């Protein structure tokens, strides 16, 4: 094999490897992972760090602990660095036991805030009493979110064509899910006090026929 062929093969392999490394990062949060890695590298440069080891990571997280608002933020940053350092530096920081012990120690005494959750009665009251001219979009988002246990990004990517209204049921297809497996669910009118299907049907009928917006959730007025 000639030297020129060897050079071509090397660049092809390197290009393929770079593509594989890029695919290691979650597509939806790739930018956040890359920002975290870039911030860490800039911190290393500011400290004249030449080799990344456990001592360096301990110092970094000790600095970050004074800036981040909660221990969960530290763990989140650790998780992102673990993946990006593995992809870009071929470094497995999960073997750094002192770093993990430090992060666990930062959790001591921390009580995470619980997210507020709507009760069944609050949901029913909102769907019944809130005026449609101001809250119909929110009502539909609530109906779809509760009926299909949808994530925020699933609702965001839901298109008009993904919802089919039939006489007694609404069929909703979730094509972009977290696990990348399409699924579907139904919205029915069965309720003691409010007809969820009627809310969805009303919203669908009010959609302008000439709109270029493909997403189902957008402001009608």
Describe this structure in words.
This is Tyr recombinase domain-containing protein. This protein folds into 2 domains: 3-106; 120-206, no CATH class. It is built from 9 helices and 3 strands, in the order ααααααααβββα. β1 (163-165) and β2 form a beta hairpin. The mean pLDDT is 86. Helices cover 55% and strands 7% of the residues. It has a 3-stranded antiparallel β-sheet. With 221 residues, it is mainly α. The termini are far apart. α2 crosses α4 (71-89), α3 (54-65) packs parallel to α5 and α7 (132-148) packs across α9.
Entry keywords:
221 residues; three-stranded antiparallel sheet
Summarize the structure.
Helices cover 55% and strands 7% of the residues. The chain is mainly α and 221 residues long.
